[in-house]
User: Which sequence fits this backbone?
């Protein structure tokens, strides 16, 4: 009986130790997530993950080292933002002046939809007015017909 308990305890411990990462080991998804948050430090126009430059390789290694030391994504972002400024970020922050970058596309779409709707309504109104027959006085209609009969 004690051997069965010991066996299950050993099995549970080995599963737990197998499933949890070792201290200092970095999850690849977390590493990729952080790396994709930056442009390459040489500002070649490529994302840090895709840039083959040696400066980008150094930065990727530095990020991995920081994650191994237990630093959070925000700590790493703050470090590189202080070093290079916000131009290093792959997407601008959603605060301050940069909030306009996130809001302006939605505003532009709404204004464009409003203008398109106004133009369509105006064209419909003009078309409806031109479709109505002109109401002429019957006397004028008779006179026009008489004149037409003279020449035809």
Assistant:
């Amino acid at each position: 009986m004690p051997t069965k308990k010991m066996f299950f305890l050993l099995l549970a411990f080995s599963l737990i130790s197998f499933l949890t990462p070792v201290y200092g080991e970095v999850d690849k998804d977390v590493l990729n997530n952080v790396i994709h948050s930056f442009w390459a430090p040489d500002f070649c126009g490529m994302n840090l993950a895709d840039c083959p430059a040696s400066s980008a390789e150094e930065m990727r290694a530095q990020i991995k080292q920081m994650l191994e030391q237990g630093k959070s994504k925000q700590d790493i972002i703050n470090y590189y933002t202080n070093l290079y400024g916000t131009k290093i970020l792959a997407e601008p922050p959603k605060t301050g002046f940069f909030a306009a970058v996130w809001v302006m596309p939605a505003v532009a779409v709404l204004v464009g939809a409003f203008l398109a709707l106004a133009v369509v309504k105006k064209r419909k109104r003009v078309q409806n007015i031109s479709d109505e027959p002109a109401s002429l006085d019957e006397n004028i209609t008779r006179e026009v017909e008489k004149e037409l009969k003279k020449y035809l």
